[in-house]
Design goal:
With 269 residues, the chain is α/β, with parallel strands linked by helices. The protein has helices at residues 21-32, 44-58, 74-85, 109-137, 158-177, 197-200, 217-230, 239-250, 253-264; strands at 9-16, 36-41, 62-66, 89-94, 140-145, 183-188, 193-194, 215-216, 234-235. Helix 6 links the parallel strand 7 (193-194) and strand 8. The structure holds NADP nicotinamide-adenine-dinucleotide phosphate.
Length: 269
């Protein structure tokens, strides 16, 4: 990918969580639009497969960084790698994340703290490390994957919903701070999406499965890409998800929480 006069690779996107689901489809959409890719996740074999496939199909360059983003040192290691390699991606996609399902009193503490690290702390740290260069170059796109979970509390996934509320709030505030800077921040808020997410959160069947809200990951990724390119602050893919997100604003918080509790509760046999 050609660089501009200041050496910026406007056409490179660094995407976390690119080994599966929404992140893998985001990588596909960026590759379709000619972006070189820096793909980050733990599963190196799967990242190599995604990268090689996109290089072959779209003639782009994909570089793989296998890394556990629950390690607090990971963002600094990524920044140092970028500096050593002279890479300055014009797009940062903070997509890596996972959920933990179950009553808070019984969920695994370590897993929940790692989730906060990946969903929140790493996202903030990576943004902090990449942003100054973007501001200096007056160009950059940051796409943070939140969720429609961000709009209300989530009994039986209490910590996960709270992490996504953080991502939405942080992204909206940062987008406002950066108005006129040439750098935009977009929060992508997917509703339930068919990926490995549910299995990794050990969700089992819930009423969500029958809600008619579940989307495929490709249209979610396309909506995220288009929203980020337009500099939109919040993107909610799917009409039903958009309507629901609007509706919860007008209902009493207690009522909304009770509804989510019913939906998120493990399905009765
Ligand atoms: N699916 C949904 O219903 C839904 C709805 C709203 C929002 N989201 C959000 O969408 C994002 C992507 O999730 P998905 O649905 O595409 O699920 P997924 O298929 O399970 O993908 C999750 C991605 O995050 C990576 N990841 C997880 N833990 C990691 C760690 N410790 N270090 C590095 N990478 C890690 C995984 O890669 P490795 O396993 O290779 O590390 C994988 O690439 C998440 O932020 C999720 O919260 C999902």
């Amino acid at each position: 990918m050609a660089r501009d006069a200041s050496g910026v690779e406007r056409g490179t996107a660094l995407i976390t969580g690119a080994s599966s689901g929404i992140g893998r489809d985001l990588a596909m959409v960026f590759a379709e639009h000619g972006y070189d890719l820096i793909l980050v996740a733990r599963n190196e074999a799967r990242l190599n497969e995604v990268g090689a496939n996109l290089e072959r199909r779209h003639g782009i360059r994909a570089t793989v960084l296998a890394m556990d983003l629950s390690d607090p040192e990971a963002p600094a290691r990524i920044a140092s790698w970028l500096s050593v390699e002279g890479r300055r991606p014009g797009v940062l996609v903070n997509n890596a994340g996972f959920g933990v399902h179950g009553p808070f009193a019984r969920t695994d503490t370590g897993q929940e703290l790692r989730m906060i690290q990946v969903n929140v702390t790493t996202l903030v740290h990576l943004t902090k490390l990449v942003l100054p260069g973007m501001i200096e170059r007056r160009a950059g796109r940051i796409l943070n994957v939140a969720s429609t979970a961000a709009f209300q509390p989530g009994p039986f996934m209490a910590v996960y919903y709270a992490t996504k509320a953080f991502v939405l709030s942080f992204s909206e505030a940062l987008a406002s701070e950066l108005l006129g800077s040439g750098v935009t921040v977009t929060a992508l808020c997917p509703g339930p999406t068919r990926t490995a997410f549910q299995a990794s959160a050990r969700m089992g069947p819930t009423r969500l499965d029958a809600s008619g809200l579940v989307m495929e990951s490709e249209p979610v990724a396309r909506a995220g890409f288009e929203g980020a390119m337009k500099g939109k602050t919040v993107v909610i893919p799917g009409l039903k998800n958009r309507l629901l997100a609007e509706t919860v604003r007008f209902l009493p918080r207690r009522t909304v929480t009770r509804v989510v509790r019913r939906v998120q509760a493990p399905a009765e046999p």
